[in-house]
Design brief:
The chain is of the alpha+beta class. 36% of the residues lie in helices and 21% in strands. The chain has 5 domains: 134 residues, Tumour Suppressor Smad4 (Sandwich), CATH 2.60.200.20; 150 residues, Tumour Suppressor Smad4; 287 residues, P-loop containing nucleotide triphosphate hydrolases (Rossmann fold); 244 residues, no CATH class; 67 residues. It has 24 helices and 48 strands. The strands form 9 sheets. Strands 13, 14, 15, 20, 21, 23 and 24 form a 7-stranded antiparallel beta sheet that branches. Strands 25-26-36-35-34-31-32 form a 7-stranded antiparallel beta sheet, with no helix packed on it. Helix 16 packs antiparallel against helix 20 and helix 19 packs parallel to helix 24.
């Protein structure tokens, strides 16, 4: 009955699908179909297109009245038709094709040769699997079956001791695979030796390898996304295999049994873990202990109680120093203790043995070494200390034995009396969370439910550390989250309601920058590419890797947000309303993805209002007015509320409220709602679910101490520089993606220069052109930066929660925006200077205007700082945009453009960057002034200003003229008096010769061409002082922005 189908494109076989059921439905319906094609890419496929039925030992194809028909090898199916190996099934004209590769029949030999021939032919045309062109639904209770293993060109090993792998899938066991090569690969890569179907999403492409080592076999995990387990223990280094060992490719993934009766496990090594460090030299485990430089022990936990086993951190190894004095810890193969995971640095830490103590030393790792939640550089380890490196826990006992625990896939969360109180507008206390206690076991899928205002998001943010609770504790594997947040935050993923992605970037580049920011600094590009490919596979985004996020659908964008968190392989993932705004079909797909992530070994907790997929949860938390109304399995919740289905779940929850309102009136709704919530809380405490899910698990913890406020770890100089470089690269790429916006930004400056030329007359004073340079510099900086923090606030908050430094973040903005605004300033200044050089529009400036350009750039930097402060203060981009004119208008009014400021205008202008910049521009022009304020003593106007100078000169002319007239009058009158006197004496005098009247000089007038003047210079300012003040303004605005961002952290 089992059948294998392969997608085919242009004659080339792509991924394979394996089914072991009697009915396979094909179409676009994500609920009813087992093979689902994408709606947008394959519109010719109907929702329920066709079916394959197992009938009387044959597979029969039925067309379900599809719109565009179903075809077998190009022939349209008009009636049920039997399919054969090699047939191509096409769904609609030019639609997708599935090739029948193989299926079981009564006589297997009749079909074996045909299947082998087809498989060998397809191997010649292998291409990369395209994951999201289709999806496959399968029963989550059964493990995906592998394809028939390929045994092609296997060279027989000379060793006669042969081992087999038996493929276990639920109650079915496939044909054993004989290991005849020295090394075989397991995974979904079609070039591997054992290839699993594309739908086996727990399995990585090249998941693990089994190699022959001397007289035995070892398995090593290839840094797979979900890990490799041997006998239910996750391995982190090459591990020996013994007879009947069970190999599982990811929690919830396929299981293989290693069959080698000749290779029996040594006593005490039934649980694999890391049985020996030096595996290649192993002869007998019992003999090796104590004889190696590093002595390694193995956990003796019984595998019979699987549930208890998975609830505890896994003991990877137990070792002593032996003859060594130091042990190196890290990701590299050369370390004494190799810990896998990209959060671990290649050379992460070192254990040192002194005379009486064991010391651990951080080797400048990216993500640090923590002792009891505090990051250290070097410290002695006491027996009571818990040392954390990534997801690994290190403990040292009194005898000096070192034990390494793996906490991945074993993360338990306990909420103990969690409460949250805030003040209302009247100053009263409002309790948002009321002593919520619950215990979440490892790898559970938990839903937080409740009506609006129930406190779901508040509980989630308290549980993940984003907004700590006022009282109570959150314990992660018995460690207080708030005290140990720095060491635990890497293991916590959080997807808020808003997308935590830059929509301008492609899917791949988004994940690339996340990896660069969060993973160890020495992670190679190939390792980053590998983890991104794995995450894209898991989230079904492989086909969309190079598509800008803004072009994705809502469901695909949400998958990208989830992929962002999966980069660090967190043990716990919190999701706040992840399906809000999605259509029912997409919502179901996303919920099934969360279910799949939980089954792969992670704890998934999400809030939701939707009730259609509640049954996918392992347990649900029901909140009402911040109180715990129920915690248990979904079907138990229905019984507890006496609800017939989840459609009337909330109605049943709020039914007592409506009943009491009818009795007592609507005026007391608030008190009634609080009382009903308290009643539900008390009712739950008397149920078996409370005892099982809350009381008994929390009783194991004993007394829990109240938490203290943690201290955040600083990145350090080199960490800050590395983060600044990555943030700057990402931010630049985000801005460069919006080419239209950049074009508008850069075309503004030349256009403003042209308009200034049209407005600015050739004979006018030069104030206006310098004012334009100053004001536009502030405008460029402020307008460009005013929305840059607020528009990516969800991304900022999430990255801040992980490891984002405020200084690297803020200065990445300054750096990139500084380049853009600097180019804008050049595009404005250079054209204006060219007009000056050409004589079309004078704009004088010393040293070819370079000091004026510097003043413009400095002013623009102040504008950027001002814009970023606005962006940090506001809550919406719209408000930021509205505030920009309110910032710029006072620059116009108080900068001194309209005349010499006086009174309050002069004082107000001192806090305006444009005022200081405007004055600096004029001072660097070397022009004299029209007004007396600021006139140069050795200038053309002798320190008076042109107006005063002309007035003074005219006064001199008038005074000189008056003096000359007075002298002329005196001389003339004297001569006439002498003439009259002689006449009166009877003489006949000669008529006097009068002098020519004095010539009066013309009064001086204002020159028609005032382009060699500016109106005034501010009397309180100076060239050097102006620049210092602008720098101080920049510094104060930067500090203010940092304070605002830090206060938001505290709030």
């Amino acid at each position: 009955m089992k059948i294998i189908l392969a997608k085919e494109c242009e004659g080339k076989q792509l991924s394979e699908l394996s089914f072991n059921q009697q009915l396979i439905r094909i179409g676009r319906d994500t609920v009813d179909c087992q093979v689902v094609f994408d709606n947008e890419q394959f519109p010719m496929v109907s929702r329920r297109h066709c079916e394959l039925h197992w009938q009387n030992g044959n597979w029969v194809l039925h067309d379900l009245n599809s719109s565009y028909g179903t075809f077998i090898d190009g022939q349209k199916v008009t009636a049920p038709q039997t399919v054969k190996v090699g047939n191509g099934l096409q769904f609609g004209l030019d639609g997708p094709v599935l090739r029948v590769v193989w299926f079981e029949v009564e006589d297997y030999s009749l079909q074996k040769s045909a299947a082998t021939s087809l498989r060998n032919r397809s191997l010649q045309n292998l291409v990369k699997v395209r994951q999201d062109e289709f999806s496959v639904s399968f029963d989550s209770s059964s493990v995906p079956s592998p394809n028939i293993p390929k045994q092609i060109n296997q060279s027989q090993s000379p060793d006669s001791q042969i081992a087999n792998l038996e493929f276990v899938s639920g109650h079915l066991t496939s044909i054993p695979y004989r290991i005849t090569k020295d090394s075989i690969w397991l995974g979904r890569d079609l070039d591997g030796d054992i290839v699993f179907e594309a739908s086996a999403v727990m399995v990585s492409r090249r998941h693990a390898a089994i190699s022959r080592q001397n007289d035995g076999f070892t398995i090593h995990d290839n840094d797979s996304f979900n890990g490799t387990l041997v006998n239910e223990q996750r391995i982190s280094a090459p591990t020996p295999l013994y007879h009947n060992d069970e190999i599982q490719l990811g929690i919830g993934g396929p299981v293989l049994r290693f069959d080698a009766p000749w290779r029996i496990a040594p006593k005490g090594a039934s649980l694999a873990g890391q049985r020996l460090i030096d595996i290649g030299q192993q002869v007998n485990a019992a003999e090796q202990v104590g004889s190696q430089t590093i002595a390694v022990g193995v956990s003796s936990v019984s595998r019979k109680n699987s549930k208890d086993h998975f609830a505890q951190p896994q003991l990877l190894m137990s070792l002593t120093f032996g003859s060594k004095r130091e042990l190196n810890i890290g990701r590299a193969e050369t370390n004494d203790i190799k810990l896998d995971g990209l959060l671990i640095s290649n050379c992460h830490a070192r254990l040192l043995q002194t005379n009486s103590d064991i010391v651990i030393e951080d080797l400048n790792s990216t993500n640090g070494v923590y002792i009891n939640g505090k990051r250290i550089t070097r410290q002695v380890i006491s027996p009571n200390d818990a040392v954390q490196i990534g997801s690994f826990l290190i403990k040292v006992d009194q005898a000096g034995r070192i034990r390494i625990f793996d906490t991945r896939s074993k993360t338990r969360i306990d909420s103990v009396n969690l409460s949250k109180e805030v003040k209302d507008r009247s100053g009263g206390i409002v309790r948002l969370l009321d002593n919520v206690s619950l215990s979440i076991q490892p790898n559970e899928f938990i839903g937080l439910l409740g009506p609006s205002g129930a406190g779901k998001s508040i509980l989630m943010e308290a549980m993940n550390g984003m907004r700590p609770a006022s009282g109570g504790s959150i314990l992660i594997n018995n460690l207080d989250l708030y005290e140990h947040l720095d060491s635990l935050k890497q293991s916590i993923g959080y997807v808020p309601q808003d997308d935590i992605i830059h929509r301008e970037l492609t899917v791949y580049r988004t994940l690339y920058y996340v990896a660069k920011l969060r993973l160890s600094s020495d992670v190679s590009s190939s390792e980053i590419k590998k983890i991104i490919d794995e995450v894209l596979d898991v989230t079904g985004l492989s086909e969309r890797r190079d598509v800008p996020i803004k072009r994705l659908s809502g469901g695909q964008r949400k998958r990208v947000s989830i992929a962002v968190e999966l980069i660090t392989k967190p043990s716990v993932i919190f999701l706040d309303e992840p399906t809000s705004g999605l259509d029912p079909a997409t919502e179901e797909k996303i919920m099934k993805l969360f279910r799949q992530i939980a089954e792969s070994g992670r704890t998934v907790i999400l809030t939701t209002h939707a009730m259609e997929n509640v049954k996918l949860f392992d347990k649900i938390v029901v909140l009402m007015r911040g109180k715990l109304a129920f915690y248990g399995k979904p079907d138990e919740a229905l019984k507890h509320l006496d609800a017939s289905s989840f459609k009337d779940f909330y109605d049943k929850l709020e039914e007592p409220i409506e009943q009491k309102i009818k009795q007592h009136g609507n005026g007391n709704r608030y008190q009634i709602t609080e009382q009903v919530a308290e009643d539900w809380k008390k009712k739950f405490t008397h149920t078996p679910q409370y005892k099982k899910n809350v009381y008994e698990p929390l009783k194991e913890l004993g007394k829990v101490k109240s938490h203290n406020v943690r201290k955040s770890y600083r990145l350090g100089i080199f960490g800050s520089i590395r983060q600044w470089l990555t943030l700057s690269r990402r931010y630049a790429e985000v801005l460069l993606r919006d080419k239209l916006n950049l074009f508008i930004l850069f075309v503004q400056a030349p256009l403003i220069a042209l308009l200034t030329y049209f407005v600015m007359g050739a004979n006018q004073p030069r104030d206006f052109v310098y004012f334009i340079l100053s004001l536009v510099a502030v405008w460029f900086g402020t307008s460009v930066a005013a929305r840059e923090i607020i528009r990516e606030r969800p991304v900022y908050k999430r990255e801040r929660m992980v490891n984002l430094g405020l200084v690297p973040y803020l200065f990445s903005k300054f750096f990139v925006l500084g380049i853009i605004v600097g180019i804008q300033c050049l595009l404005l200044f250079v054209p204006l200077k060219l007009l000056d050089v050409s004589g079309l529009m004078p704009m004088p400036g010393e040293m070819f205007g370079i000091p004026q350009l510097w003043a413009m750039l400095l002013t623009a930097a102040v504008g950027i700082a001002l814009g970023l402060l606005i962006s940090a203060l506001v809550r919406t981009s719209e408000l930021a945009t509205s505030l920009v004119p309110l910032i710029l208008i006072p620059q116009i009014l108080f900068s001194g453009l309209v005349g010499v400021p006086s009174g309050i205008n002069r004082a107000a202008g001192l806090i305006m960057p444009a005022t200081w910049s405007f004055d600096t521009m004029k001072r660097f022009s070397t022009l004299d002034t029209l007004e007396e304020e600021g006139a140069e003593l050795d200038g053309k106007t002798n320190g008076q200003g042109l107006y005063k100078y002309i007035e003074t000169e005219n006064d001199k002319i008038i005074a000189d003229a008056k003096k000359e007239l007075d002298e002329y009058k005196y001389d003339t009158e004297r001569k006439l008096d002498d003439f009259k006197a002689k006449l009166n004496n009877g003489k006949n005098p000669v008529a006097p010769q009068l002098d020519e009247p004095p010539v009066i000089a013309d009064a001086k007038k204002l020159p028609v061409n005032l382009s060699e003047y500016i109106t005034f210079l501010h009397p309180w300012m100076d060239e050097v002082l102006n620049q210092i003040v602008l720098m101080i303004m920049f510094g104060l605005l930067v500090i203010a922005t940092l304070i605002v961002l830090r206060m938001q952290d505290i709030g």
